[in-house]
Specification:
Blueprint: E1 2-6, H1 11-22, E2 26-31, E3 50-53, H2 59-66, E4 71-74, H3 88-108, E5 114-120, E6 128-131, E7 135-137, H4 144-148, E8 164-168, H5 179-198, E9 201-207, E10 209-211, H6 224-233, E11 239-240, E12 247-252, H7 253-265, E13 272-276, E14 281-283, H8 284-295, E15 303-304, E16 317-318, H9 321-327, H10 335-342
Parallel strand pairs: 1-2, 1-4, 2-3, 4-5, 5-9, 8-16, 9-13, 10-12, 11-15
Antiparallel strand pairs: 6-7, 6-8, 12-14
């Protein structure tokens, strides 16, 4: 199958490209080699893929990239929380306008095929919760006065008791709480409109916290695992926000790439949204401790700072059961195995 991978020079996109090439697919990559992610053309690019260098918002470039493809794997995006709200136009341009330009080009080419979108768990906002007395609840955004006082847990709006975190399913309400999250949900909506109008098949993969080789480092857009590793490599203890007990699901990039192959090669029943997660909840503090242990630096211990970011949510984990049932997806890399590898693999 001839497949276009947008953002195919990036962290997740390049892993998808490698696995597609290995599976025998013909792969074309569209990437702008953004300075926020790449200092230069990466040395790891797969030589068996075709590369189109250019911006996803450039109609002429995108027209060339989509010519003759049978499926599209849309990974290109500006990720993370950025520096502050001053990044909003860049996020909207790269994520929303870029997606719209891609869909417009596919429409011009009268394309009907399978579109796999790299979405994110951030579209949910907070995770799922339950109060022992009042049952399942969806808490609102945490209050600044609570965060300033070190009260980080989401609370019941009726009795103010701390809520128990639960796993999310794909039918959970969507409530993005930062700019990046809002653009990812808009991507899902735009692709959904395109699929309905054209009869194309859409699969939205809601990634959880992805880590692994080729992860960006030392930028405002880097993931927490990369940030902690950079602290350790520079001889400093990782700085952990809040109290370190916030729960996430850390899923290895190789598993995420396999999920993309399952989505691209799946039959017509594999459509809609899927949580792509390991199914193993870990705290951010435990991530910091695991990396310290691998580095073997007994003098380094995670520094719990009590700092917070308003755009962050407290707990978010999700069930990957739908992906297992319909795509046969199950994560193979455990948290312990992945952290041992991640501490030593090349980043960028």
């Amino acid at each position: 199958m001839k497949i276009l991978v947008t953002g195919g020079a990036g962290f997740i996109g390049s892993a998808v490209v490698d696995q597609l090439v290995e599976s025998g697919d013909e792969v074309r990559v569209l990437d702008n080699l953004s300075a926020s992610a790449h200092a230069c053309e990466p040395a790891y690019l797969n030589p068996d893929a075709q590369y189109v260098w250019g911006d996803l918002a450039d109609r002429d470039v995108v027209d060339r990239a989509v010519e003759g493809v049978e499926a599209v794997c849309h990974q290109a995006a500006r990720v993370g929380l950025g520096v502050d709200f001053g990044d909003v136009a860049d996020f909207v341009r790269d994520n929303d306008l870029g997606t719209a330009t891609l869909l417009e080009a596919l429409h011009r080419h009268r394309w009907q095929g399978r579109l796999v979108l790299a979405s994110s768990m951030v579209v949910y906002g907070e995770g799922a919760y339950a109060c022992k007395e009042h049952g399942a609840l969806r808490p609102g955004p945490r209050l600044v006065e609570d965060l300033e006082a070190g009260r980080f847990e989401a609370t019941c709006q009726y009795c103010r008791a701390a809520l128990e975190p639960l796993d999310l399913y794909e039918d959970a309400p969507l409530e993005p709480r930062n700019v990046y999250a809002a653009t990812k949900l808009h991507q899902e909506h735009l692709c959904g409109c395109f699929a309905r109008e054209t009869g194309s098949e859409l699969v939205s993969l809601r990634y959880h916290n992805v880590y692994g080789p080729r992860m960006p480092r030392d930028t405002p857009y880097a993931g927490v695992a990369s940030i902690f590793r950079s602290f350790l490599e520079s001889g400093r203890s990782p700085r952990v926000f809040e109290d370190g007990n916030q729960r996430r699901d850390f899923v290895h990039v190789d598993d995420v790439a396999r999920a993309n192959l399952g989505a691209l090669h799946g039959d017509g029943t594999v459509t809609g949204a899927f949580n792509i997660a390991s199914g193993e909840a870990s705290s951010v503090g435990s991530l910091a401790h695991a990396l310290c242990a691998v580095f073997g630096e007994t003098s380094f211990r995670p520094l719990i700072t009590g700092e917070y970011r308003l755009g962050d949510v407290r707990h978010i984990t999700a069930s990957p059961e739908r992906a297992r049932q319909l795509m046969g997806f199950e994560a193979k890399v455990s948290f312990e195995q992945g952290m041992r590898q991640f501490a030593r693999v090349p980043l960028r």
